[in-house]
Amino acid sequence: GRADKPGRALLQTWTPEHPVLMALAAGDRDAFVEAEMGEREAASLPPHGRLAAIILSSENAIAVEKVARDLAEAIPNAERLEVYGPADAPLALVRGRRRKRLLVRADRDVNLQAFLRAWLARVKVPASVRLTVDVDPYSFL
User: Which one is the CATH code of 50-135: 3.30.70.600, 3.40.50.720, 1.10.3720.10, 3.40.50.300?
Assistant: First the structure.
C-alpha cells in the first residue's frame, strides 16, 4: 500500500464535522474505525446487520426501469427487513448500460438469502436485463 509514502488527499463534504471525516483528517485510523463501527451498529449495517444490493442493467433504459418497478411491486412482506429503491445506481451508465439499484437492509438473524430467492422468483427478468445480487457489498458503485 501507500501507508509509508507521503501524499495528499482532498475531500469535499457538506459535513466536515462528521466524526468519520474528523478522524480521517487527523490521520487517526483507530478513531475512524471506531466512529464507522458505531455508525454501522446504529444503522444495523454490516457487520451488525445484513445488506444486499440488487443491481439491474440493460442497454434498454425502458426495460431496466420496468424490471426495477416490477421488483419494487413484488417485495414480499418481511419483518426486520427494509427495501430501499429502486433508484439510479451511483454509476447510472456504465459501458452503454443503464443501471438501477435496490438495497435490502436486514437484521443479522434474518435469512436474507431465502428472502432474496423468494422475491426474485416473483419477477420475470427479460434476457436484455442483467440482474446481479451483491450481499454485504464492499462497494456501492
Answer: 3.30.70.600
Distance CA 106, CA 101 (A): 16
123 pLDDT band, cuts 50/70/90, is: very high
The residue behind cell 443479522 is 108
Q: How far apart are CA 95 and CA 105, in angstroms?
A: 28
pTM greater than 0.70 (yes/no): yes
Distance separating alpha carbons of residues 123 and 118, to the nearest angstrom: 10
* DSSP-derived pairing of the beta strands 97-107 and 130-135: unpaired
Bridge partners, residue 60, by sequence: none
